[in-house]
Write a structure and sequence with these properties.
heterodimer; A: mainly alpha; Histone, subunit A; two-stranded antiparallel sheet; 35% helix; 4% strand; B: alpha/beta; Amidase signature (AS) enzymes; 16 helices; 11 strands; globular
């Protein structure tokens, strides 16, 4: 499978990364090199093979549904570029 | 280097106990050599001199009170990927500009709880994506090793290039690092240092900036096998904050160092060769086999038939997980924000400005392979191949093999700007021998084993059974005993 410039621009939009036409063209070449190289996986017979879900067989840990942390609103917003009264500020989303 | 910075961690422990020097003297000695070397090597992004002196003073008080802990007064460098409270933690990226965590990663907390001293934050490939430390927003790290008679700058490997360069140049006694496809072992190999990636789940991932969560694992880079064992002892823990942290007690790793390998079965896989691999690497491997024979181990030829598919499968799984993990950098909660016409435009401009080329490339590959219609063909297929890679190892270990011996990298260090410019895959091939351990969750250690014709260090790798890091330390010491200690001639 290979990608054209329009697909690169579409994928970049899905990933929320702005790319110029020139960048999309360069990325098209690079992505196709990588996708062409991973094609060799098609040589592998994976009939009846389960996809890996956990690299080390351990049971999923669960903890009691207790409040163990909190009251840190100031900490949570302390690194944000724009805040007000412990809220994150973003450009207007709803008209 | 001066007298104090030349000491191993084991020697520091002894010297501090005997009051030969104080922890503060030791830390000051490191701060002095960092000041002189860092403008040339660029290993540290930030030096936390005042914090280091405060921690060293506290260590001296502990020692005076007879309450020294396992790493009391040992000056360490911390990879920028680890969150350290109130201190620069940006994963080598522009998008985390100004980020100072309000919390401490489990691993660094474990180190401070054992008395270690933080010298600063170490340079790395952006978000740990790279094999040469050339993708950092803070510029490339320089390898303290140069070709004999040459003065061209070489890469230290990556992504833990700052960690490896700092340890090799003796700008810290040891360093934390992380390994998603080879990022501890490959830079260790390029700098003549020892690096171990433990079993997935051995070290907590809590507070480490995520790249590919099913592959990421932290470990130390150190000067000797024993020092690596001492550091891993403190870094490893069972952590309720990481659901993939294994509920297995951390054994005494240092005990294993120096134990005999007589009777141990060392597997040698025929698939660990690649086209264009220098003869010197092949010779090094054969030399390693002879060392183990001489030490009384049994050498067994083995086959890991799916080896060649590990790297292409990794370049589906890794980017897929990265595209998801890196979705959080949106210009809202931390770091860089670039204003836009609306919120989508703000996201897109922020991420365009904040991510470097390699990160963008991987996020786009990941987004593509996870997108509608391609998920089964790429991601599910890669995870099936991963099952087969792991099965290869399980069959070998079930047959009684204790550890597997391979070259660590297909070449020695190369020049800055030399690889990957036109073809990203050329750079990716650096991890061809290390990535299998990540894909299968197994522990792997790189130990310096010799020098090439240009005098550059080369390393061998040992891969072990799950949670059997002790055997890797035990077997790794055999290489160190035979090959000796490697230190670059000082030019910086």
């Amino acid at each position: 499978m290979s990608v054209d410039k329009d697909i690169v621009k579409h994928v970049a939009h899905l990933a929320r990364i702005k790319v110029s036409d020139a960048e999309a063209e360069a990325l098209r070449g690079e992505l196709n090199t990588i996708l062409g190289w991973v094609e060799q996986l098609n040589e592998v017979d994976v009939d009846g093979v389960e996809p890996m879900t956990s690299v080390i067989p351990v049971a999923m840990k669960k903890r009691a549904d207790d409040v163990t942390d909190g009251g840190k609103a100031a900490d949570i917003v302390s690194n944000a570029p724009a805040t007000e009264d412990h809220y994150f500020l973003v450009p207007k989303v709803v008209e | 280097m001066n007298d104090l910075t030349g000491l191993t961690i084991a020697a520091i422990r002894e010297g501090l106990a005997k009051r030969d020097f104080s922890a503060l003297e030791l830390t000051d000695a490191y701060l002095e050599v960092i000041d002189a070397a860092n403008p040339l090597l660029n290993a540290y992004i930030v030096v936390t001199a005042e914090k280091a002196r405060d921690m060293a003073r506290a260590s001296d008080q502990r020692i005076a009170a007879g309450e020294a802990r396992a790493l009391e007064g040992v000056p360490l460098g911390i990879k920028d990927l680890f969150c350290t409270k109130g201190v620069h933690s940006q994963a080598g990226s522009h998008i985390l500009d100004g980020f100072q965590p309000t919390y401490e990663s489990t691993i660094t907390q474990n180190l401070w709880d054992d008395g270690a001293v933080m010298l600063g934050k170490l340079n790395m490939d952006e978000f740990a994506m790279g094999s040469s430390n050339e993708t950092s927003y803070y510029g490339p790290v320089v390898n303290p090793w140069r070709k004999r008679g040459g003065n061209a700058d070489l890469v230290p490997g990556g992504s833990s290039g700052g960690s490896a360069s700092a340890v090799a140049a003796m700008l810290c006694a040891g360093a934390t690092a992380t390994d998603t496809g080879g990022s501890i072992r490959q830079p260790a190999a390029f700098t003549g240092t020892v690096g171990i990636k433990p079993t997935y789940g051995r070290c907590s991932r809590w507070g480490i900036v995520a790249f590919a969560s099913s592959l990421d694992q932290a470990g130390p880079i150190a000067r000797t096998v024993r020092d690596a064992a001492i550091l891993l002892q403190s870094m490893a823990s069972v952590d309720p904050k990481d659901t993939t942290s294994a509920d297995i007690e951390v054994p005494d790793y240092e005990m294993a160092v120096g134990e005999s390998v007589r009777g141990m079965k060392i597997g040698v896989p025929k698939e660990y060769r690649m086209d264009g691999m220098p003869d010197e690497i092949e010779t090094l491997w054969r030399q390693g086999i002879e060392w183990y024979r001489a030490a009384g181990a049994e050498i067994v030829d083995i086959s890991l038939p799916h080896t060649k598919y590990a790297l292409p499968a990794y370049y589906i799984v890794g980017p897929a997980e990265a595209s998801s993990n890196l979705a959080r950098y949106d210009g809202v909660r931390y770091g860089l924000r670039v204003a836009g016409d609306d919120i989508i435009d703000m996201y897109e401009k922020t991420r365009a400005a904040g991510f470097g080329k390699e990160v963008k490339r991987r996020v786009l590959i990941g987004t593509y392979v996870l997108s509608a219609g391609y998920y089964d063909a790429y991601y599910v297929k890669a995870q099936k191949v991963r099952t087969l890679i792991k099965r290869d190892f399980e069959e070998v270990f079930d047959s009684g093999i204790d550890a597997i011996l391979t070259p660590a990298t297909p070449s020695a260090a190369f020049g800055i700007g030399e690889k990957g410019g036109a073809d990203p895959v050329e750079m990716y091939l650096n991890d061809i021998f290390t990535v299998t351990a990540n894909m299968s969750g197994l522990p792997g250690i790189a130990v310096p084993a010799g020098q090439d014709a240009d005098g550059l260090p080369m390393a061998l790798q040992l891969i072990g059974r799950p949670f059997d890091e002790a055997t890797l330390f035990r077997a790794g010491q055999v290489i160190e005993d035979a090959a000796g200690f490697f230190s670059p001639p000082r030019w910086w």
